[in-house]
């Protein structure tokens, strides 16, 4: 398992959930979600700043495919964010399958005692934690980098 902080994003139409893990990949922590701007470049600038500030090894973006594995409108949106982010940061950007992460995050928030209404403000970043944890499990079990790399192998 490679050492280094990782950042995970759950791309939504209104907010982007954010989570980060420590350098040893032991603890994943939700961060405040990023409010999406109608101008994608402003949203990418906010994420890029976070990537730089946290000095992450890699960025994982959840790829919201249907249960059957087909692309959806949300899939295209997440891929567009990933492609633009890969052009603007030096850290590799990887898409990882995010099926069931929102359901899992919601269940965990409910089990923590939050009502559906209270959980709404936390669900995006809780889903990002699920994406991050899944990516880390994949790397630990396979020894391979998880997901699909977006952008150039040689840099942004």
Write a brief caption for the model.
With 156 residues, this protein is of the alpha/beta class.
What would you report as the Rg, rounded to the nearest angstrom? 15 Å
Principal-axis shape:
globular
* Largest beta-sheet details: 6 strands, mixed
State mean pLDDT (0 to 100 scale): 86
Quaternary structure state of the chains depicted: single chain
Order of strands in the sheet with the most strands?
Answer: 3-2-1-4-5-6
Uncertain residue ranges: none
What fraction strand?
Answer: 15-25%
- Cα separation of the termini: 24 Å
Number of helices: 5
**What helical percentage do the residues reach?**
40-55%
SSE topology string: EEEHEHEHHHE
Summing up helix and strand content along with how strands pair, one would put the structural category as alpha/beta
What is the number of E strands? 6
Keywords:
156 residues; alpha/beta; 6 strands; 22% strand; globular
What is this structure's SSE topology?
Blueprint: E1 6-11, E2 15-21, E3 28-35, H1 40-54, E4 58-63, H2 73-88, E5 93-97, H3 101-111, H4 116-119, H5 123-142, E6 148-150
Parallel strand pairs: 1-4, 4-5
Antiparallel strand pairs: 1-2, 2-3, 5-6
Helix pairs in contact: 1-2, 3-5
Account of the protein in words:
With 156 residues, this protein is of the alpha/beta class. Helix content is 42%, strand content 22%. It has five helices and six strands; from the N terminus they run E-E-E-H-E-H-E-H-H-H-E. It has a six-stranded mixed beta sheet with strand order 3-2-1-4-5-6, with helices on both faces. Strand 4 (58-63), helix 2 and strand 5 form a beta-alpha-beta unit. The longest helix has 20 residues, at 123-142. The radius of gyration is 15 Å and the shape is globular. The mean pLDDT is 86.
């Amino acid at each position: 398992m490679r050492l280094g902080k990782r950042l995970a994003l759950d791309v939504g139409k209104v907010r982007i959930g954010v989570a980060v893990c420590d350098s040893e990949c032991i603890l994943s922590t939700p961060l405040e979600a990023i409010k999406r701007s109608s101008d994608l470049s402003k949203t990418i600038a906010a994420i890029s700043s976070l990537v730089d500030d946290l000095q992450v090894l890699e960025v994982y973006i959840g790829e919201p495919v249907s249960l059957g594995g087909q692309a959806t409108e949300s899939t295209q949106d997440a891929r567009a964010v990933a492609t633009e982010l890969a052009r603007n940061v030096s850290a590799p950007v990887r898409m990882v399958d995010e099926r069931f992460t929102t359901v899992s995050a919601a269940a965990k928030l409910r089990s923590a005692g939050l009502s559906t209404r209270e959980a709404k403000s936390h669900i995006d970043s809780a889903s990002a934690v699920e994406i991050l944890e899944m990516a880390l499990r994949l790397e630990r079990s396979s020894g391979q980098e998880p997901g699909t790399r977006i952008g150039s192998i040689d840099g942004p």
